[in-house]
């Protein structure tokens, strides 16, 4: 490892000390029990095989904590709780350093979380420091995954959006979409974030046609994903109700951070669609129905009913077809049927 890498890593950790004033309870209480084995001295092993097994177990615990802290930090960011995200991201970074070393590309996702949290807190210089370290690490790596390249460009796009350099922001978000498409495909929910942020740029610049096209694409990606889960799981739930008299418990297929991202993206698009619902009510209803499916799969029936009623009221107000109104009514009926059979 060269001196520059060591110095930059030390600077990042030093800057992280400033963030330690944040509420450590946002993550510490969640991982307190998981930390105990890591803080316990390694026992004496009778053989080399036992020693290796003990080290492997220790690394597995650290890797679990890396991912857990990362997901918690992501969730806080999508919920707009930037201060709470910092301690979780710092924990993820420290565990990554312990497992992978100071110059590994595995550190980059944690640097990017810290950069995004800093941007959310209005600390642009701090965000640039984290992004510089992430860029340097990626440049030095010979095997950086497409997904990591995507995240790096997305955060650079967010940085330049904060600095109101929209041309540079668009360049990085286009790269984000490219690398995410290479990693996951053009129609994957993990690619939709790049489209969403690019749409926000066009919307802010009053280029509404371009923004509308991208918002539609994002809505369709999430709708397709959720509808696939909705169709399969709703049928399973109905069968479970018929057979056992109780609701089938399941989830969205997303982790907590992805659920928070879906809520953030779809709610933002709905707010924008609502302002133009007089001219394009079908687009507003489409997003509302997607939110209904999301909350329905998250087992949040009150939210699902709320958005379904909004969709139904808008369909009636705009005098849309009976077919459109009936499809929304069917959603409400299904939610109500399940609500009448609480989990026992």
UniProtKB/TrEMBL annotation:
InterPro entries, per database record: TPR-like_helical_dom_sf (IPR011990), Zinc_finger_MYND_domain (IPR053248)
Top-level taxon of the source organism: Eukaryota
Stored SUPFAM superfamilies: TPR-like
Protein name: Zinc finger MYND-type containing 12
């Amino acid at each position: 490892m060269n001196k520059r890498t060591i110095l930059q890593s030390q600077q990042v950790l030093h800057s992280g000390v400033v963030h330690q004033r944040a509420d450590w309870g946002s993550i510490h209480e969640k991982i307190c029990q998981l930390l105990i084995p890591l803080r316990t001295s390694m026992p004496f092993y009778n053989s080399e095989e036992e020693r290796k097994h003990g080290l492997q177990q220790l690394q597995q615990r650290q890797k679990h904590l890396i991912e857990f802290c990362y997901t918690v930090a992501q969730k806080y960011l999508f919920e707009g709780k930037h201060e709470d995200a910092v301690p979780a991201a710092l924990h993820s970074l420290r565990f990554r350093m312990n497992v992978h070393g100071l110059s590994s590309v595995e550190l980059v996702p944690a640097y990017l979380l810290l950069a995004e949290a800093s941007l959310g807190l209005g600390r642009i210089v701090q965000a640039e420091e984290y992004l510089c370290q992430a860029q340097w690490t990626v440049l030095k790596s010979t095997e950086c995954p497409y997904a990591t390249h995507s995240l790096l460009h997305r955060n650079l796009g967010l940085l330049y959006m904060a600095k109101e350099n929209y041309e540079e922001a668009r360049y990085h978000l286009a790269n984000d979409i490219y690398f995410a498409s290479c990693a996951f495909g053009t129609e994957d929910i993990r690619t939709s974030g790049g489209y969403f942020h690019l749409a926000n740029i066009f919307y802010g610049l009053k280029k509404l046609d371009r923004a509308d096209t991208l918002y539609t694409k994002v809505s369709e990606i999430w709708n397709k994903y959720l509808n696939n889960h909705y169709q399969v799981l709703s049928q399973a739930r109905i069968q479970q109700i018929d057979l056992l008299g109780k609701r089938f418990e399941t989830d969205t297929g997303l982790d907590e951070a992805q659920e928070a991202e879906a809520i953030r993206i779809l709610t933002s698009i709905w707010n924008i669609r609502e302002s133009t619902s007089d001219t394009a009510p079908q687009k507003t209803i489409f997003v509302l129905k997607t939110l209904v499916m999301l909350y329905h799969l998250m087992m949040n029936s009150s939210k699902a009913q709320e958005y379904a009623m909004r969709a139904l009221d808008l369909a009636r107000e705009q005098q849309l077809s009976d077919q459109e109104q009936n499809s929304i009514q069917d959603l409400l009926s299904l939610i109500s049927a399940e609500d009448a059979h609480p989990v026992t």
